[in-house]
Amino acid sequence: MNQNTWNLNFRAVLNMKLHVFEAPIVNKSVLWNSHKGILLALTLLLVTIIPLSTNKNLPSSLPNLWKNTTNLKTVESEKKCDVFRGNWVPKSERPYYTNDTCDMMFEYQNCLKYGRPDREFLKWRWKPDDCELPLFDSAQFLEIVKGKSLAFVGDSVARNHMQSLLCLLSNVSHPVDVSPKYNLSYDFKRWFFADYNFTVARFWSPYLVESRDADQNGFSANSLMNLYLDEADPSWNSAVESFDYVVFSAGQWFFRPQVYYENGQITGCFYCQQSNITQILNSYGYGKVFQTVFRTIMGLKGYKGVTFLRTFSPSHFENGDWDKGGNCARTAPFTKEEMKWKSFVVELHKAQVEAFKAAEKEGMKRGLEFKLLDTTEAMLMRPDGHPNHYSPRMNVSVADCVHWCLPGPIDTWNEFLFHILKTGRKDTH
């Protein structure tokens, strides 16, 4: 079937299926070292030291305890805190929204509507090791971005991120879908918060660079793609020039077979099964892609915005690959002791963060800000946060262990975003 003949439903199937392909790259894993307990001074009159252990059995009152102690910290120490290193702890707060209060979530992430029986995945909150991550404040967020614009550029997980933000903000102001005004297709959307003159947009670009079908049989779940690593995808490279904030992300599509081009020449391929081309890891192409993204954004003459990199979002297939009965049926987070960094995740994460650091350094010379949303560690610990089979049944044998339930742990990404916008700091990475 030719890609041009797809209908909307088939595209929805691809958003769920094709984004979850995982090739067997390596079997090694790296255990993330657990952090030591933190000592807190709890009284002003008595010197009483209480050791706290950061594990999932912490009492639900812990967030309030931390809120009190962090009030004593200076603003400077708060800015130095690495909010991306921590643990998931029980929470007593209700979800920020539900599938009844938000009408903008994509059906395939509406897990409760489609019968997910447990609610445990909604009862955890991210707790940084050395500070407190503020709760998301919809009204304050909208005040910060008043009169501005925010673009999400990437794949269907980027859409997942955007819809989490729309649902969070809808508690205060309901946006209008103004996509028809711009003659935008299904893959490109714009939402407008009239009360705050704030625009949220989505640009579909699963590879972020120019890509073309390379399979003579046409596009399919495992067909070969040509990636032009030094050519930014034209679907976004000029359209984002006027935006105040741009969040780039990409991930699961890089597990598909692909041939890499640079300067118009083939430099290698990943999983392409062609003996006449040098086989290389997909982390090579992944790093080159983000180098191109950042070089392109800095080359836009009119661009004055803040550029965010949201790091790799891992899948959690167990008992088989995505197309061989794999699923994600867990109902609780991993602890740090249980969490394993698969070596291909380490390499992908390393490649994009190195590209980010180089861009951040160069951006400082040009007066451009680059910010990191390092979500990988937090999401590695959330095998319970995916739709699994609780979504519209396109194929009962295929589970969605790539995207994230709404509401769910993905809302933490916007807590990170809110924190960075609020503090205006340069994050530790």
Descriptive keywords:
alpha/beta; 7-stranded mixed beta sheet; 4-stranded mixed beta sheet; globular; disordered N terminus; disordered C terminus; TBL; Protein trichome birefringence-like 19; TBL_N; membrane; transmembrane helix
List the helices and strands and how they pair.
Elements: H1 8-17, E1 29-31, E2 38-41, E3 49-52, H2 62-70, H3 75-80, E4 86-90, E5 124-128, H4 138-144, E6 149-154, H5 156-169, E7 176-177, E8 188-193, E9 198-204, E10 209-213, E11 225-232, E12 245-248, E13 258-262, E14 265-270, H6 282-299, E15 306-310, E16 340-342, H7 343-366, E17 369-373, H8 376-380, H9 411-423
Parallel strand pairs: 6-9, 6-12, 11-13, 12-15, 15-17
Antiparallel strand pairs: 1-16, 2-3, 4-5, 7-8, 8-9, 10-11, 13-14
Helix pairs in contact: 6-7
Subcellular location: Membrane
Domain Trichome birefringence-like N-terminal: 79-132
Protein name: Protein trichome birefringence-like 19
